[in-house]
Amino acid sequence: MSLETIVAGIVLKHPIMNASGILGEYREHIARLARYGFSAIVTKTITPSPRKGYEPPIIVELPNGGLLNAVGLANPGKGIVYDLVNEARKYSLPIIISIGGSSEREFIEVASLADEFGANGIELNLSCPHAKGYGIEIGADPSSVYSIVKEVSSVVKIPIIAKLGLCDRVVESSIKALSGGARALTLINTVKAMAIDVYTMKPILSNIFGGLSGPPIHPIAVRIVYEVYRETEADIIGCGGVDSWESAAEFFLAGAKAVQIGTAIYRDENIVNNIVQGLQQWLYEIGAKSIRDIVGAAHKF
Q1: Mind listing the pLDDT tens digit for each residue in 142-154?
Q2: Local confidence band at 253 (pLDDT 50, 70, 90 cut-offs)
Q3: Are the CB atoms for 16 and 272 separated by under 8 Å?
Q4: Known binder of ligand: residue 190?
Q5: Is 68 known as a binding-site position?
Q6: How is the cofactor bound (predicted)?
Q7: What local confidence, expressed as pLDDT, does residue 30 receive?
Q8: E strands along 52-144, which residues?
Q9: At 297, is the secondary structure helix, strand, or coil?
Q10: 152, burial (CB in 10 Å: exposed 0-12, middle 13-18, buried 19+)
Q11: What span, in angstroms and rounded, lies between the C-alpha atoms of 237 and 29?
Q12: Residues recognised as catalytic
C-alpha cells in the first residue's frame, strides 16, 4: 500500500510530518526528528531576531490528554537557518522553515534566507495564539493574510505553506492565502486557552493564556480541514491531536494530504512508525492502493 504523497510540490515518502513548535530549532533537534521517522522536518518558528520567550511555567499537562503551552515563540533567530537546512540534508529529508513575524518585512527577511540556503519550503506561522502581535492576530484578518503571503511569494521560489488557526474567518483567510500565492495550508495551530490553579487561585502559565494542543482539539481541526477542503480542494496538512492512525485517517478523509504530529511525540517516540503501519493495514482492509485514493473521501457522501 503506497503512502507516498505530494504537498505543495514536495514529495513525501509517507504523509507524517512533525508540527512546528516541537523541537526543530537546533541541529540536534533535526537529527532527533529524523530518527523518529518523519518524512519531512518542520522547524520551530524562526523570527528575524532571537526571542527569549516567556518565563516558566510555560507548559501544563492536562488530565484530558492535552497540553497547554505558552513558549512565546522562543528561538535563536534567523542565523540558525543555514545550520538547520544543512542538518536535514544529512538525512535526505525535505525541510520546511517555519517563519514568524509581526510585519511583511520580518517574514520576508527569514523567507529569503530559507530560499537562499536551499530549504524545500516555507511555513508562514499566521496562527500562534499566545504571542502578542504575531500569529492569530494576523491570520484572523484575511486581508493581512493575503498581503503577507503575496509579498513573500514575490521574493522566493520555494513553495509557501500558510499555517492558519481557529478563527471565525478561517475559510476566508484560507482562500486569501491561496490567492496570494500559498501552495498549501496547514490547519490548524493550537487553540487559545488557560488553566487556573484552584489552590493558589492564579493562572498557572506565566503568560496567563497559552495554546491548547493534543486530542482535545482534534475534532475542531478535522472540522476546519473539512470546511476548507470543501471550499478550495487545496493541498492541506492536517494538524491537531494526531495520536493514532485513526486520528490521522480522519484528516485524510476530510481532505488533508499529510498530517503533522506535535503533542503525541512527547508520549511515544515510536508514534510515526505505529501510524505508518496502521495506515498501511487500513488501506489494505478497505481496498485502497494509495493514501491519495482516500483524500477527501468523506465529501462524497
Answers
A1: 999 999 999 999 9
A2: very high
A3: yes
A4: yes
A5: no
A6: Binds 1 FMN per subunit.
A7: 95
A8: 59-61, 67-69, 95-99, 121-126
A9: helix
A10: buried
A11: 22
A12: 128
* Contact between residue 14 and residue 5 where contact means Cβ atoms under 8 Å apart: yes
pTM of the predicted model over 0.90: yes
Distances (CA, A) of 122 to 82, 158, 260, 262, 276: 14, 7, 15, 18, 25
Backbone torsions φ then ψ of 79, nearest 5 degrees: -65, -15
188 is in an annotated binding site: yes
Alpha carbon distance 101, 103 (integer Å): 6
20 is in an annotated binding site: yes
The owner of cell 491537531 is 240
Decide: 138 and 100 in contact? Cβ < 8 Å.
no
* 42 assigned to a ligand binding site: no
Residue 70, annotated as binding a ligand: yes
Residue 35 contacts by C-beta under 8 Å, 6 or more apart in sequence? none
Element (DSSP H or E) covering residue 131: none
Query: Given a cut of 70, is residue 130 above it in pLDDT?
Result: no
CATH among 3.40.50.720, 3.30.950.10, 2.40.240.50, 3.20.20.70 for 5-49+72-191+210-300: 3.20.20.70
Query: Which residues are CB-contacts of 24 (< 8 A; sequence separation ≥ 6)?
Result: 18, 30, 33, 41, 42, 43, 44, 84, 98
Q: Which residues pair with 24 in a beta bridge?
A: none
Nearest to 261 by CA among 209, 297, 221: 221
Instruction: Provide CB contacts within 8 A for 249, sequence distance 6+.
Output: 279, 282, 294
Contact predicate 163/127, CB 8 Å: yes
User: 248: closest CA among 35, 27, 3?
Assistant: 3
Phi first, then psi: give them for residue 177, nearest 5 degrees.
-60, -45
Give the separation between CA 235 and CA 258, rounded to whole angstroms. Answer: 9
240 is known to lie in a ligand binding site: yes
CA distance 99 to 155: 15
What is residue 2's DSSP assignment? B
Please tell me the distance from the alpha carbon of residue 161 to that of residue 98, in angstroms, as a whole number: 9
d(CA 224, CA 239): 10
